[in-house]
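Cross-check.
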Amino acid sequence: MRSPAFSFSLLVSFLNPASLLFAQSPLAPAPDSAVLRISASGGRFTEPSIAVNPNNPNQLVIVYQGGKEAQGSATAAYSRDGGLTFTIAEGTKPADWRVAGDVTTTFDNHGHAFLCYIAFDRLGTTSYWAHNAGRNGIFVRRSLDGGKTWEPHAAAVKSFPAGTEPNLAFEDEPRIFADNQPGSPFADNLYVGWVEWQIDKSVMLFSRSTDSGLTWSSPLKISTHPGLPRDDNGSLGGYFQAIAADGSIYAIWNDGNSITLAESHDGGRSFRRPHSVIETGPPYFGDVPGISRVEGFAEIAVSSAREKHPPLYIAWSDYRNGDVDVFLASSSDGGRKWSAPVRVNDDPLHNGCDQFYQSLAVDPATGYVYLLFYDRRADSHNRAIKLTLARSTNGGQTFSNYALTTTAFDGRAAFLGDYTWLTAFRDRVYGVWTETAPDSHDRPETIIYCGRANFAASHHGAEQ
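Predicted model, tokenized:
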């Protein structure tokens, strides 16, 4: 049975007449690009994630959160035609929880799709989630048919099912990853990392599954320096990881004004002591006009090259230049030394226009580096937002910027979520993000979009 939202998932992004007042971007369009609306209207949808099946690139899954009444629900949409169309899947919202959010997705080597989310009935005290928290936890569900149907059982990674347990904490911001490297000794392992808010600190936890997500290991604390207990600057946050061809895990998170790296070379059984690798500006910055909250949390990606030290990349955003920019640094020695930050967005420096909520991906087939981000370069008033796709074919030394969208939107103080998401495979790139609905005002509704580009169909041999 198709969701009522299905008809919207086939539509190309609508033109917003108000956006025609904004100056248009001078960027060249991404090759063979298109934008699809994924979510229905009349809701507040945020925080999407996307994955492509490495065994069948025509299969993709998008997950996101939200709903009509701002109550979170975990939603999945699937494609079987390479992202030309998406269909909303049934049965992904957990019936026994009031809210499900912070969703991410991945595929394993067998074409199984996974949906990871937090579930809770209420938040704790504002930004101090462990204080007065109720029952909550992190859960994973799976689909054995590429995202069309989802098993009703959800495996708990860590949970407080009663909400009255001793040392009650709040589990937050989980990210799920699969080792789908065909030559890895840990192929088919699944990994989830997240931040746990305790009453007096924040810590980074990690769990793994070796049986296709049916059961999960006891959480392992991988941070050694505790963060502050409030969801703000000074806390730990933004877990992300990359998996190399040999199965090595490179995990990062933000700790104050630095990015911390921890490595595992035994399939997630243990991690080396984490260490700071890159200094940044504060990861939370509330001074992006017209947006309720913006974070510059980092992502990490690794080349699939079978080398002793395959190239590693970390991307983030901060306001070291006054306005917010997107940056990337690389390492060729396993993360010990990192290059000077490269500014990814190529608009004029110090122009007062922000680029934020970046997402990073490395194409495992080509090794090319891609970033997706919100971009305000076309509006001198720093309000109108478009989506820009950046591409590097020389290991992140320089980037070409392309327009993924041509119609701007105004954030109107809406909550756009805490992240966008990007994936790339064989020169085809897919990104997902949140926009405000053009016809909502007092409490702006939001919509999930998916944009795609096909660099295999272009002739950009002159690119750097």
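The chain has no helices and 29 strands. The radius of gyration is 20 Å. Passed to J.P. for a second look.
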